[in-house]
């Protein structure tokens, strides 16, 4: 377990906030991208999931669900990446750039976060966890089919749009960027079948927040999956 101030882009320091995270985790990377996108620096504590550091008595007091990320701002403790991103954007980003202030724009971002939480993320877990934790060395056919089905949904959602939530990257794109870039390791996105999704992934990968806060953990995930499975790593 190691503690540091986040030093990716780090401009406005919020000393009273702490994030417990593992770079390999897409949910943690979403929060890290949101922080970098707002140029916020907080205390970060690296947790080793493989060593069970997220299950220590101290961590269980903060989050009985035994998942990461966990976030604390003074007395407030949050343990869901979507809630953390929304809180940070609502509390510390006045412009409404990441989380639109108008009810329509805000609902669209909420809708995407529900899709991420309710559909994409469970499909990520179903594909990755047997490899990470159960000695399976491939992505199972049903999981591949479910992920392809999600790619098809996402391709439709991008019709006529450059970004998911608006004319610029919002929390929708940040939250999707972490999950979809990770799914792409497990089931590569075919650019002929999903041209809009693959262009969007290329576009979002060029954003500074992705470079500073997603790439390293994504490589770590890719390397780990490569060691444990027959999934081809690019
Ligand atoms: N809905 C939660 C999901 C969090 C979650 O499942 N985190 C994973 C890491 S990606 C975790 O902590 N897994 C614990 C484990 O692998 O034992 C969120 O978005 O924060």
TrEMBL record:
Residues 15-96 form the GST N-terminal domain. InterPro entries: Glutathione-S-Trfase_C-like (IPR010987), Glutathione-S-Trfase_C_sf (IPR036282), Glutathione_S-Trfase (IPR040079), Glutathione_S-Trfase_N (IPR004045), Thioredoxin-like_sf (IPR036249). CDD domains: GST_C_Delta_Epsilon. GO terms for biological process: glutathione metabolic process. It comes from the Eukaryota. The gene is HaOG200226. GO terms for molecular function: glutathione transferase activity. This is Uncharacterized protein.
């Amino acid at each position: 377990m190691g503690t540091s101030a986040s030093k990716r882009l780090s401009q406005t320091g919020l000393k009273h906030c702490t994030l417990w995270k593992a770079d390999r985790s897409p949910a943690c990377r979403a929060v890290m991208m949101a922080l970098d996108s707002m140029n916020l620096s907080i205390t970060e504590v690296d947790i080793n999931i493989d060593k069970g550091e997220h299950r220590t008595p101290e961590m269980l007091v903060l989050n009985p669900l035994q998942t990461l990320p966990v976030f604390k701002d003074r007395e407030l403790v949050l343990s869901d990446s979507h809630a953390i991103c929304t809180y940070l954007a609502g509390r510390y980003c006045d412009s409404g750039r990441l989380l639109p202030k108008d009810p329509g724009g805000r609902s669209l971002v909420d809708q995407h976060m529900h899709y991420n939480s309710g559909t994409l993320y469970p499909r990520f877990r179903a594909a990755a966890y047997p490899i990470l934790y159960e000695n399976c060395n491939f992505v199972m056919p049903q999981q591949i089919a479910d992920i392809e089905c999600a790619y098809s949904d996402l391709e439709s959602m991008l019709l006529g749009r450059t970004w998911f939530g608006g004319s610029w990257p919002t929390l929708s794109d940040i939250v999707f960027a972490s999950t979809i870039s990770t799914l792409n390791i497990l089931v590569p996105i075919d650019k002929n079948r999903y041209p809009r999704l693959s262009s969007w992934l290329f576009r979002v990968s060029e954003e500074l927040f992705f470079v500073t806060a997603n790439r390293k953990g994504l490589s770590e995930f890719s390397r780990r999956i490569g060691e444990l499975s027959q999934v081809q790593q690019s």
